[in-house]
């Protein structure tokens, strides 16, 4: 694995493939992507699949699919941590040869007994191996692990780009296992080796890894490697301030896709979740790439707020290019197993978008409001709309039909014709709008009746009104 140019910013996202892509993991990936891409650097993807019992190809595929949908592209191929096991073991043996690690022959039973004694005496349960300084000629012919020879005195200090200066007493750090008795590397060793070999300059991850940073720093120093910049970001909490869980709603990124949030809106929301740039709430990828920096990340946990997400989603739908909205609609229909749009319905939807986009917060809401252009005659009104089509309303619709036959098909003339018929019956325009909604869309909540008329055209409008008036 060759390291990129040392002068270049390199970040990475390193999920474990044991389940779906969590919303918190997606935000971590986004922060890494923004930091690297905004500085012309590289964003790498590593699948940390050393837990072979729990790692699955399906979970890996879900992570890749989720990142792709979210629009977070990575450089090169995604790498597998498990495939680097030989390299990890090589580093452990190099540390052994250099005297920064040692062979420990203590059995699990001996370790547990030592901890039980320490508990009984009220002492620390960190295991103090009797083999730490044992001469090589006293080593038995028995299974052993390789442990880091951690310093006993002083402090290990992390100058964290988010958390600030964090100091760990070295007498609180154990001689962690680097290589197990079966020759397999531990996660703590593998992470350091992979980050070094991949040329990672900035490790941006959740603050639940902050304690790991101290132990991993000891491995960097033992190997004489440069320690990357650490930036430990706070976790995401629910609206109640408690750790995010299923009771707070969607956890996996795929759930947000199925709920119909456009990827651009979710990127905007996740970027703002724990990071700020002045008072900016709604912004584009271009803005985020230019603005994002580590000092803007808050130390306090961020709180998930679906109302804010809905608001931002609506803003993105209102301002996105038509082609982007149609692309997102296609992806949402595929993700939910719905039938794809026909060419005719796609054309109709494209014509209708200007009248739909400012009234929808999510893609399914947009589809619902586009019902009038996605349905075919005869229009079957729902229960609420059907109540607007009583005998009086049908009579008025029959009277309206010849007026619409001869009018210029533009908004002002359509409004004038409908308003004139309403006034003839002593009605306001709103009173006639409801049966028109029922006739044109079969719904009581729709875009403007005049927007609908302009989108579906004269012939279809007249046919639908005639059906409803019959």
From TrEMBL:
Keywords: Aminoacyl-tRNA synthetase, ATP-binding, Cytoplasm, Ligase, Nucleotide-binding, Protein biosynthesis. InterPro entries: aa-tRNA-synth_I_cd-bd, aa-tRNA-synth_I_codon-bd_sub2, aa-tRNA-synth_I_CS, aa_tRNA-synth_I_cd-bd_sf, Glu-tRNA-ligase_bac/mito, Glu/Gln-tRNA-synth, Glu/Gln-tRNA-synth_Ib_cat-dom, GluQ/Sye. ATP binds at residue 246. Residues 342-468 form the Aminoacyl-tRNA synthetase class I anticodon-binding domain. It is found in: Cytoplasm. GO terms for molecular function: ATP binding; glutamate-tRNA ligase activity; tRNA binding; zinc ion binding. GO terms for biological process: glutamyl-tRNA aminoacylation. Pfam families: Anticodon_2 (PF19269), tRNA-synt_1c (PF00749). A motif ('HIGH' region) lies at residues 15-25. Its main location: cytoplasm. It comes from the Bacteria. Its EC number is 6.1.1.17. The keyword Nucleotide-binding applies. Residues 9-309 form the Glutamyl/glutaminyl-tRNA synthetase class Ib catalytic domain. GO terms for cellular component: cytosol. Transmembrane segments: none annotated. A motif ('KMSKS' region) lies at residues 243-247. It catalyses: tRNA(Glu) + L-glutamate + ATP = L-glutamyl-tRNA(Glu) + AMP + diphosphate. Catalyzes the attachment of glutamate to tRNA(Glu) in a two-step reaction: glutamate is first activated by ATP to form Glu-AMP and then transferred to the acceptor end of tRNA(Glu). Monomer. NCBIfam families: gltX_bact (TIGR00464). Belongs to the class-I aminoacyl-tRNA synthetase family. Glutamate--tRNA ligase type 1 subfamily. This is Glutamate--tRNA ligase. The gene is gltX.
